[in-house]
Design a protein that fits this description.
Layout: H1 2-5, E1 8-12, E2 15-18, H2 24-28, E3 33-34, H3 37-42, H4 54-67, H5 70-75, H6 77-97, E4 100-102, H7 103-120, H8 135-145, H9 147-152, H10 156-161, H11 164-170, H12 172-194, H13 205-209, H14 221-234, H15 237-252, H16 254-267, H17 273-276, H18 280-292, E5 302-303, E6 309-311, E7 314-316, E8 321-323, H19 326-330, H20 356-360, H21 374-391, E9 392-396, H22 401-404, E10 408-410, E11 412-414, E12 423-429
Parallel strand pairs: 2-8
Antiparallel strand pairs: 1-2, 3-5, 4-12, 6-7, 9-12, 10-11
Helix pairs in contact: 6-7, 6-21, 7-15, 8-12, 11-12, 12-14, 15-16, 15-18, 15-21
Bound molecules: protoporphyrin IX containing FE.
Cofactor: heme
Family: Belongs to the cytochrome P450 family.
Binding site for heme: 371
Amino acid sequence: MHRQFGPIVRITPHEVHISDPDFYATIYGGHRDKDPSHFARLSLTTSSLATIEHHLHASRRRPISNYFSKQSIENMEPVITSKIQKLSTRLQEAHTSGSIVPLDAAFYALTADIISEYCYGLRVNYLDDKCFNNGLHKATKSLSKLSHIMHFIPCDFLIKSMPDWVLSLISPSVKAVLDAKESVRAKSKSILCNQKTQNLDKRTIFYALNEPGLPPQQRSLEHLVDQGSQLMGAGVETTGSTLKFIMFHLLHNKSLLVALRNELMEESQSTRWSDLEKLPYLTGVVNEGLRLFAHHFGRLTRSAPFETLYYKHWVIPAGTLISASHYYMHMDPQVFPNPHKFSPERWFDVKENGGQQNSRLVPFGKGTRRCAGQNLALAELYLVIAGVVRSFDFELFETSPDDILHYREYQIGFPKKENDGLKVEVTQVFK
Ligand code: HEM
């Protein structure tokens, strides 16, 4: 439609879509509300992600932002490192026994173990499971598969009022989502019933969400469940999939893996995120993973409720829904020549180009609604990729690009057919 009609298209009676990277910051900056149909879609009504109105969002978001600040994430690095250590032990065992590893399931187990321990002090130990089975990943995948239906049919109220056995009959995937939410509810309830705020473990999200300065409605059970469930949902699939995608590319084109390993062996022995971030090749690898894979497929619709926006000679009245897909930002051939290629080197000359690539890389969104878990995600990507590539060599096992690359969209991307994901043989362990 953009090719036919130009950079601004009215894609629904109520929404315009603008494909112009220079206008992206205007759409997502400033005081912006969300599309009210998010309420129906998410079934997490009081979470910051589903909050429509800007000011209410700001007050719900504040405690989470502090909790996921760069400083807080650097302080919790030992949690991430201990899970990477556990993953390494499993990979060493697979090398000894010669068994095939479902590496993507291992990454989802790792991200689920990290977010559960960081937010709740819970050791769910999915990394200990023989096949890395993981209820949180199953629930997130199920929820996204329902996203198109829930966009048009606000079924949150219906779902909440149905008995569990009816739900299991209608849709096992809805049941998986509710089970995950129920475990967050049970934990939230026990905390609210049994502990005073001053006794809460200061490292968990409950402490952040129970700050005495917060309005009472923000310290209700419902709110704790919605905020907690969104973190558990958002913290597993996104980073796990990006890790899967990056590792696939490194193994599909092993010259990339060798270049990265050389940098990791020769330039730095550090295992700190703050040091790893300075490595150019590793940064190129992470950025390419985020650029090519981690772009949100939904439109992330916004509106400026009290402000008229102007795009070229078009006037966009206050309250109009407006969106811009990340895909166009990340695939612009002017900024990213040969955009489909996974090319870490394209990030080497960012400074000479005036940082243009950086300003076009928006996997976490922009503005006040951008990803709250960005620092956690980046720390995980740097630490896991460095840890795994330094210590192991792999060969792909019966895994083709079709098994990994996005083909279908349910808010997040899915491959062409359901498949067993990224399978690898561990061929070497480096001491
Ligand atoms: C590669 C990994 C990740 C990507 C690409 C990603 C991307 C995004 C994007 C694009 C949004 C904005 C959604 C919107 O505008 O409606 C978002 C929101 C959010 N993300 Fe992430 N995310 C990632 C990892 C994480 C992690 C690890 C967490 C940890 C808890 C997390 C927590 C959240 C939360 C809580 C929000 C809602 C923020 C708000 O509305 O205030 N994300 N994420």
